[in-house]
Design a protein that fits this description.
The complex is a heterodimer.
Chain A: E1 3-10, E2 20-27, H1 34-44, E3 64-67, E4 70-73, H2 79-84, E5 103-108, E6 115-117, E7 120-121, H3 124-133, H4 153-163, H5 170-173, H6 176-180, H7 187-197, H8 205-214, H9 227-231, H10 238-252, H11 261-275, H12 280-289, H13 299-317, H14 323-328, H15 334-348, H16 389-400
Parallel strand pairs in A: 1-5
Antiparallel strand pairs in A: 1-2, 3-4, 3-5, 6-7
Helix pairs in contact in A: 3-7, 4-7, 7-10, 8-10, 11-12, 11-15, 12-13
Chain B: E1 3-9, H1 13-24, E2 29-33, E3 49-50, H2 59-69, H3 76-96, E4 110-111, E5 121-122, H4 128-142, E6 147-151, E7 153-160, E8 166-173, E9 179-189, H5 210-217, E10 222-223, E11 228-235, H6 245-248, E12 252-254, H7 262-265, H8 275-287, E13 297-300, H9 306-312, H10 314-324, E14 333-342, E15 345-347, E16 359-361, E17 366-367, H11 380-399, H12 412-423, H13 432-446, H14 453-470, H15 484-508, H16 526-529, E18 531-536, E19 544-549
Parallel strand pairs in B: 1-2, 1-9, 2-6, 9-16, 15-17
Antiparallel strand pairs in B: 3-5, 4-5, 7-8, 8-9, 10-15, 10-18, 11-14, 12-13, 13-14, 18-19
Helix pairs in contact in B: 1-4, 1-11, 2-3, 3-11, 5-15, 13-14, 13-15, 14-15
Classes of the chains: A alpha+beta, B alpha/beta.
Chain lengths: ~400, ~550
């Protein structure tokens, strides 16, 4: 049985002492979960280790923690998988003759939320407050039918992805935007919002979208860092839900928000279409002044440029920006530019927008060789993690496109 | 000091449904839970919820299937109510926002389930419990002005007035250890079953029989406690649940010889016979040497079209991948019967009233009894919602005509002392987890699919010894903030009380019916045992047995085969 070194971040507010690392060696197989290891310590050594947990099958959402720097559920993260993360954790032999562990795993409470005790964070203060912010309940289309609402199967499948959220807080833990702007509504709550915006039974799609667009901490506050997608143990892909909210708001409902979020997005898309790469000098003026070459002559464009000087000047001085390219735009070879334009034409020429829902779509029964043996070959295998549906989806997606 | 018309303990489906129903009548409501409501174990219910909602289906058919499933131990008046009210409950859920699966026409779609004569199980992929629980919590957030939520508060005592009427509870705020008296005109227990008394179990770590034991300790009658459901498909090794929905979608069971053995035991319904029948069949195969060396048989989900599996059984695809290292769409998985549900619980009438005035119970903590000797799959979600709602409505109605009780806040002193005594115990006793493990393994060995008098007596002796040891179990945590160790000590006590009631009831019932199969009494015996076994304590920690009649309305007991 391999031995893992488990380093638990401990903290008791009543002790008057700072947080500290509590080290334990546990003998468990690499396919055991991090939660198994923590519970082994709690059961056999120290009953005071604080962690919320219940179902041990990744459905109750209690055991969100950070393991070697990455957020997730302790119950469905294997020890070998957590230990393999390159997080720069070292191991210093404390005594001569200590056995070198199979892996070192640092377990910390989730980020962006205050710690109550050990691995337990205050989700009410952050996560649930933000959920409450998005009116997290169905506002029924009237009249409510006597029997069920008639709703296309595809719509129900579509919102099942955001329904699958178990409110564990892993995405909130590592949301970079929230770290900068604690007011950001955040990935979990916005995914929850999509669950209603995508539900044909809800009566207030437009109001919800307007609300989330106009809020300066709303949908345009996300910076596409993908952390929430990496963090989510349930494949909810919060960032994808945020992007859907944006498309619904900007493209379908034509909501032009006061934060210039939608115009900014439009501008970037147009500039890339026309120049092949981002044209930095045009970006701000167009976002604020209007999305055309004339945008820069709008008074709002001048104002924003003036306001941005404190960022622009140091960027130029530190040579993060090349003035010539920034002002005159990037030049890419004509065939490349044509290829970019062709892509745009193809996508924009579609009659209907294709919304990828990788949660359940993208699979077909592919013909395959019959299994070598019949029943009775289902013994649990230990030859590494199986291919995840996500990888399969991604593969079949790229094949078809 | 909080005081409410209705105090609900437990915030799974039954508790939340009770809270919403009580609040709708205008009563003041508090709901208390030792975990955040969405962590409640209802969240793990996978397969679906039954209702005869299709025009071609009838509630009578649903009722008969349930009664037959119960091996005629279910009370038919309660079953009639549950099945009649089921369709409206589904529609209520749908209108509240549950994203039920749709057919091609956009109407609600169903899947097949065990022991049912029609496909009447409504579902959301294989996260039905999760989908419903989160929608109910959405409704609680919507109605936060009328329902006070106390999340992460642990109930230590049920309070009674001089006449024995339940009039509140003492609860501990886990965040700071503060104790608080909650006054209430009526208390509804909705805090789930006792699966953690078994090892392995499909139940979460929080399912520790709190409500069953608390009611039992103040004199409430427990009923049908011997009826423990072993689910036919739990994962080898860790006992995780593989939903019955898999078999509903077409998955098949095979023994190690490649034989589809259900053909022998239930030629008509095969894998979709009721759970006690399938579990017994599997255990027989395993005991007679036709299982795999790890004590399992194989569940072959590759019979289900792959796309269908990925769309509607996604959760078990993940469980197979994460917890067994198997792609269930490509190869069979090894499973065995495992503890899943307790049909018994606190005896109630059709309004959820227990034998203690002012105290209600709903959901797995209760025994109405709609499940009798064996619960059908997808009937438990229904039970929680129907009887949760009925309890909430009835309790609120009663409360209208009553003055608000008032328990002096000094009443917490004795609980405070009790907690301090636990915290200050001398070291040197057994560890809580060691006692709990021994309890779980004992029950799983002697009070499982097959039972006999010798084994049950052994189990009883062990439980008595563990009760003694639990009183001096070692406590490491001496703090006040999220002291889970102290909670663990309380929970262990609750589990041991439940375990004793289970064992005593199983010893008492000298026949085989539903989930109780006595190898020393292998026949069902309607002449002597068509009755409920009730367990209660009066003052001392010794369970006493009594009986209640089974209510039969129109379905006379018949021989049962699938």
């Amino acid at each position: 049985m391999p031995q893992y070194l488990l380093k638990l971040r401990r903290y008791d507010p009543r002790s008057g002492e700072a947080a500290y690392w509590d080290e334990h060696r546990v003998d468990l197989g690499g396919r055991s979960s991090v939660l198994d290891a923590i519970l082994k310590v709690r059961d056999e050594v120290d009953g005071s280790v604080g962690i919320r947990c219940s179902c041990q099958q990744a459905i109750c959402g209690s055991c969100g923690v950070r393991m070697n720097g990455r957020p997730g559920l302790a119950c469905n993260t294997h020890l070998e998988e957590a230990a393999a993360r390159d997080f720069g954790v070292g191991w210093n032999p404390s005594e001569e003759g200590d056995e070198v562990p199979a892996g070192v795993i640092e377990v910390e409470p989730m980020g962006n939320m205050p710690v109550i005790r050990d691995l337990i964070v205050d989700m009410d203060a952050v996560h649930w407050k933000k959920i409450q912010r998005v009116s997290p309940y169905l506002i029924n289309q009237q009249p409510v039918p006597e029997r069920e609402y008639i709703v296309p199967h595809e719509n129900m499948v579509d919102i099942t992805q955001s329904m699958a959220c178990i409110q564990c807080g892993a995405c909130v833990s590592d949301c970079l935007s929230m770290e900068i702007d604690p007011g950001f509504i955040g990935p979990a709550a916005l995914a929850k919002a999509y669950r209603f915006v995508g539900d044909p039974r809800d009566a207030e799609h437009h109001e919800r979208l307007e609300d989330l667009s106009e809020d300066e901490h709303g949908i345009y506050d996300c910076t596409h860092c993908f952390n929430c997608i990496d963090a989510c143990p349930k494949g909810v892909d919060p960032m994808s839900q945020i992007m859907r909210l944006r498309r619904r708001a900007g493209t379908d409902e034509k909501i032009v928000d006061r934060n210039n979020g939608h115009r900014h997005e439009d501008t970037i898309a147009t500039l890339v279409r026309d120049y092949g790469l981002l044209h930095e000098a045009e970006m701000l003026p167009r976002s604020y002044g209007g999305n055309s070459w004339f945008g820069k002559f709008h008074p709002a464009a001048g104002q924003v440029l003036l306001r941005s000087l404190p960022s622009i000047v140091p960027a130029v001085l530190r040579r993060k920006v090349n003035i010539k390219i920034a002002v005159f735009g990037h030049k890419i070879p004509k065939p490349d530019l044509d290829a970019v334009k062709k892509l745009y034409a193809k996508i924009e020429g579609r009659e209907q927008r294709v919304e990828l829902n990788l949660y359940v779509s993208g699979f077909e029964d592919e013909p395959e060789a019959p299994p070598a043996e019949t029943h009775g070959t289902g013994a649990p295998q230990d030859d590494g993690p199986a291919t995840s549906p996500h990888e399969l989806e991604a593969a079949s997606e790229s094949e078809s496109s | 000091m909080p005081s409410h018309d209705v105090l609900i303990i437990g915030a799974g489906l039954a508790g939340q449904r009770a809270a919403l129903a009580a609040a709708q009548t205008g009563a003041t409501v508090a709901i208390i839970s030792k975990v955040h409501p969405v962590r409640s174990h209802s969240v793990a219910a996978a397969g679906g919820i039954n209702a005869a909602l299709n025009p071609e289906d009838t509630w009578e058919s649903h009722a008969f299937d349930t009664i037959k499933g119960s091996d005629y131990l279910g009370d038919q008046d309660a079953i009639e109510i549950m099945c009649r009210e089921a369709p409206n409950e589904i529609l209520w859920l749908e209108h509240a926002g549950v994203t039920f699966h749709r057919s091609e026409t956009g109407n609600l779609g169903t899947r097949a389930f065990g022991g049912a004569s029609a496909a009447r199980t409504y579902y959301v992929a294989d996260i039905t419990g999760h989908a419903i629980l989160h929608v109910l919590y959405e409704q609680l957030m919507k109605h936060s002005a009328t329902v006070d939520r106390f999340e992460e508060w642990f109930t230590t005592d049920l309070l009674q007035d001089d006449e024995g009427r339940c009039n509140g509870a003492i609860c501990r705020n886990l965040r700071n250890g503060e104790l608080q008296v909650f006054d209430a005109k009526a208390v509804i227990l909705a805090c789930g079953g006792a699966g953690q008394a078994y090892k392995p179990t499909t139940n979460g770590l929080i399912v520790t029989g709190d409500g069953i034991a608390q009611a039992y300790r103040i004199g409430a009658r427990l009923m049908d406690m011997e009826m423990i459901q072993y689910h036919p498909t739990t994962l080898a090794g860790n006992g995780l649940l593989i939903t019955e929905g898999a078999r509903g979608e077409g998955a098949q069971l095979f023994n190690a010889e490649g034989e589809r053995f259900m053909e022998k035991y239930a030629p008509n319904k095969l894998e979709l016979a009721s759970r006690d029948v399938v579990s017994r069949a599997e255990q027989t195969e395993i005991n007679e040497g036709r299982g795999f060396p790890d004590g399992t048989v194989a569940l072959d989900i590759t019979k289900v079209p792959r796309r269908r599996t990925l769309e509607s059984l996604r959760e078990i695809v993940n469980i197979g991948r994460d917890f067994a290292g198997v792609d269930i769409t490509r190869e069979p998985i090894h499973i065995h019967p495992g503890q899943h549900y307790i049909m018994g619980g606190v005896k109630t009438d059709i309004y959820g009233q227990t034998t203690i005035p002012g105290l209600y119970a709903a959901g797995e903590v209760a025994c109405v009894s709609v499940h009798g000797g064996n619960r059908l799959g997808a009937n438990s979600l229904l039970d929680t919602l129907i009887f949760g709602r009925r309890s909430g409505e009835h309790a609120a109605g009663q409360a209208l005509h009553m003055p608000m009780p008032s328990t002096p806040s000094t009443r917490v002193t004795s609980t405070e002392k009790e907690i301090r005594a636990i915290i200050n115990r001398p070291q040197g006793g057994r560890r809580l987890a060691a006692i709990k493990d021994e309890l779980g393994e004992t029950l799983n060995q002697y009070v499982a699919v097959f039972r006999d008098a010798d084994g049950l007596r052994t189990a009883h002796e062990i439980v008595r010894r563990l009760k003694e040891q639990a009183r001096s179990a070692t406590i490491d945590d001496h703090g006040t903030v999220f002291n889970q160790d102290v909670i663990g000590a309380f929970e262990l006590g609750y589990m041991l009380d439940c375990a004793e009631a289970i064992v005593v009831a199983a010893i008492e019932r000298k026949e085989s019916r539903g989930a109780q199969f006595r190898t020393d009494f292998p026949q069902r015996n309607d002449d002597e045992w068509l009755k409920h076994v009730d367990i209660s304590v009066n003052g001392e920690d010794v369970p006493t047995v009594s009986y209640s009649p089974v209510t039969i309305t129109r379905w006379e007991p018949q021989e049962r085969s699938y």
